[in-house]
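Section handout, structural biology tutorial.
Before the tutorial, make sure you can parse a SMILES string by hand: atoms, branches in parentheses, ring closures as digits. In the record below the ligand is nicotinamide-adenine-dinucleotide, and the chain has 379 residues. In the tutorial you will relate the predicted structure tokens back to the input. Do not try to memorize them.
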Amino acid sequence: MTTVEREPWPLTRTLRVELGNRSYEIAVGEGLLAGIGRLLTPIVSARRAVVVTDAHVAPLYLDPLEESLTAAGIACSRVVLPPGEATKDFAHLRNLSETILAAGVDRASLLVALGGGVVGDITGFAAGILLRGLDFIQVPTTLLAQVDSSVGGKTGINVPQGKNLVGLFHQPRLVVADVTTLDTLDGRQRRAGYAEVVKYAVLGDAPFFAWLEANGQDVCSGVRLAQIHAVLTSCAAKAAIVAADEREAGHRTLLNLGHTFGHALEAETGYGDDLLHGEAVAVGMMMALELSTRLGYCPSRDRDRLRRHLQSAGLPTALSDLPRRDWSAAALLDHMRRDKKVRNGRLNFVLARGIGEAFVSSDVAVAEVERLLKDATGG
Ligand SMILES: NC(=O)c1ccc[n+]([C@@H]2O[C@H](COP(=O)([O-])OP(=O)(O)OC[C@H]3O[C@@H](n4cnc5c(N)ncnc54)[C@H](O)[C@@H]3O)[C@@H](O)[C@H]2O)c1
Ligand SMILES: [Zn+2]
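Predicted structure of the complex:
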């Protein structure tokens, strides 16, 4: 039997991340997995690839991807990792590295990260260190990975001292975001990824926020054109910021909107299924806008507008929306102190002058943040 490779759908858009000789394209569209071999051949000359994925994604998408690579003359082997954040550790990195080397890769081989942010981060890291650097491509299959983790070149693993503390910058050669893969993602994961989409709108794109108010439901329910527009606009926002500040010397900090509070909530809950990253970011963005309002930067109507939109997307907007009850303002503040540099009682923070206008302030009084956390936790 001969397999006929399906033509990529016309619904494909590409954009470029401009990083000099490390520039790369992001292709966003429907049904792209089956055409990935043809997207790749003009970009890399690899004849051999190792596809890394996880045990949830493998039965869904590994076969069509491998068929497409094989049809393009690229020989494949596969590594299937256990799903979940716990996979991003030294033990799995070691196994992964040894398996990839045992597959007989050389400097001209390619790694393919097929999956969510966990697979993308550990595969990108392995690509960065093996044989002093292999090419890799990102094929993100969660909304979070499509709009965030697959773009920008941050790779790494977690250690007991904290998340993502061991890693390096290693840009992929190509990102292929096939929105069809989002169909199998569970609703909660999809909503969590959507919080990052909203983040791009809040930090720098008021018209996109208005578009999300009108079309966010379609993005979450799987209307293709809406998904493609949302993913593309998000990637374009991230690409522009990364191009301006690849290593987070300044401007890239804007991407942390909602994350200073969000990371504290995640650290308190232990990075498990109780609180997904995007859920923490949703609550964190609300806190950041509340802080901005209290400090006199942001009109309260913009804060309320964000709350309404996150609620309409089914995302939490306050600690009281989360299952956990016993939050402590002091413990949260401790995490934030550890996360951020505090100088003379002042914290570095991403604030907003309104929807679409975030800015970095190095002058937020710890006492003000403490007051806000006390109000949010009820004491
Ligand atoms: N490198 C970066 O810049 C960056 C940015 C943001 C987040 N991250 C990292 O990303 C990770 C989180 O990524 P995530 O939210 O994608 O989590 P994830 O990779 O754990 O995926 C979530 C779950 O969805 C499953 N899954 C993936 N695709 C699926 C599909 N199409 N259908 C059904 N199930 C599917 C996975 O197996 C997993 O169980 C964190 O480790 C975080 O640190 C990195
Ligand atoms: Zn995030």
